[in-house]
Each structure stands twice: as C-alpha cells, then as structure tokens.
C-alpha cells in the first residue's frame, strides 16, 4: 500500500520505549511527523534522529509531535533513546504492521534480514491528513528535512 498526500493517515497504536501505547488518532489537533528508520544504533539512523533531537524546538514551535518508528523492540529503542538522549518518542513496530500499512518496509535488507522499515517521513496535519510523504529506497539517504520543515511552517 502506498500512502498519498491528502489522504487520511491510517490509524495505529504502537508501544513506545517506555512501554506506553501511543495511538496516532489521539494526536489529532497537532501536526505529527512520523519518521520510520531501519535500525537503532546504525550510523545514518543515529545521525538522522540526533539531528531531529537537536532541532526539536522547530517542531515544538510548529505544534508538531515527532514520532520515530522502527521494527526494533521496545527494549532496544529504550537503550537507543537513552544513549542518544533523544527527546521524542520512539515506537516499536516489532510486528511490522504499521511499516507494512504505510508501505515502508523492505522485504529483504542487509545480512539476509527481512521486514525492516525503510527510512521514511510522513507529515500529518492537525486534521489527520497526510501533507508530506517520502519513502527512501536507499537506507543511506535521509528525508528532505528542508521540504518537511517548509511544509510544517505552512501548517503552523
């Protein structure tokens, strides 16, 4: 399935690294930036998420909630969040349901791994509509944060 700009974002509930359920639809009324990433503790993922951490004021100022999503377990995500001092929730899609729902999953990845999230970004507005989508095939690339941030400023 491919997510299209203008459609209602598919709802989901995932557990965060503190073992609390987070439901997307409960965040209506604020913008949401979903950042799918392949795996914790890898170079590009760490760089991407630490950049978001360092610029969190931009997202807070635009009434935007940032959610990082990977197929890592809640335990792995908790350690990664702690070590990198990330200041936004990381959600575990361990069963790969949300990555599949959003069309952002590798059937095959490195070291014969299957079912790892593709690096992707989805910006959802206060009404639950998708306003930006980017699914990257190359895990070494990061989403275009200039375009994401420009779109976020339009929505603020």
Plain-language structure description:
- By secondary structure, this protein is α+β, with helices and mostly antiparallel strands.
- It has a single domain (13-155), classed as Glutaredoxin, CATH 3.40.30.
- It is 29% helix and 24% strand.
- The chain is built from five helices and nine strands; from the N terminus they run E-E-E-H-H-E-H-E-H-E-E-E-E-H.
- The chain has helices at residues 43-54, 56-61, 74-84, 97-101, 145-155; strands at 13-16, 21-23, 31-36, 64-70, 90-92, 105-106, 116-117, 120-124, 130-135.
- The strands form two sheets. A seven-stranded mixed sheet has the order 2-1-5-4-3-8-9. The chain has a two-stranded antiparallel ribbon with strand order 6-7.
- The radius of gyration is 14 Å and the shape is globular.
Quick tags:
156 residues, alpha+beta, Glutaredoxin, seven-stranded mixed β-sheet, 5 helices, 29% helix
Itemize the secondary structure elements and their pairings.
Blueprint: E1 13-16, E2 21-23, E3 31-36, H1 43-54, H2 56-61, E4 64-70, H3 74-84, E5 90-92, H4 97-101, E6 105-106, E7 116-117, E8 120-124, E9 130-135, H5 145-155
């Amino acid at each position: 399935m491919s997510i299209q700009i203008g459609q209602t974002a598919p709802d989901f509930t995932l557990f965060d690294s503190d073992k609390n359920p987070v439901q997307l639809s409960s965040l209506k009324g604020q913008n949401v930036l979903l950042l799918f990433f392949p795996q914790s503790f890898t170079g590009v993922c760490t760089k991407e998420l630490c950049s978001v951490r360092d610029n969190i004021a931009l997202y807070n100022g635009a009434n935007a909630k940032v959610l990082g999503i990977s197929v890592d377990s809640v335990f792995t995500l908790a350690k990664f969040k702690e070590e990198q001092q990330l200041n936004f929730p990381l959600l575990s899609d361990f069963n790969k349901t949300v990555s599949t729902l959003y069309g952002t999953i590798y059937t095959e990845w490195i070291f014969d791994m299957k079912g790892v999230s593709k690096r992707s970004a989805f910006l959802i507005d206060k009404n639950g509509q998708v306003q930006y989508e980017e699914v990257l095939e190359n895990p070494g690339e990061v989403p275009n944060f200039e375009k994401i941030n420009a779109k976020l400023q339009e929505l603020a």
